[in-house]
Sequence to fold (121 residues):
Amino acid sequence: MSAAKRRDTEAEIGLRRQLHARGLRYRVAFPVPGQRRRTIDIAFTRQRVAVFVDGCFWHGCPDHGTTPRANNEWWATKLGANQARDRDTDRLLAAMDWVVVRVWEHEPVDEAAGRVEAAVR
Fold:
């Protein structure tokens, strides 16, 4: 697990490049207000838009998410906790009037950038 990138994944960099090309400026790995160990992947602080680029495995994609066969119970608990933390982060940000946009890593970059741009503008 320590080899898994927390930021600057291929999907995240692709989305950031597309957003930058569209003239949008943002902050990277911005701390969730009041939660020192959680970060927003791409944050538009003035507009209060938080963008998370979720990996299919780690966040339980309904299309591509899998559960390893070895140590199945431990992984089910771990991946379930990740999803619960995602929901809690969404709730916390919504309570502070932030708009949350979640993007799956397999989504086409143009479509994801379009959704983010619509939320920002």
User: Anything to note?
Assistant: Strands lie at 27-32, 35-44, 49-54, 99-104. The mean pLDDT is 94. The chain is about 45% helix and 25% strand. The chain has one domain: 10-120.
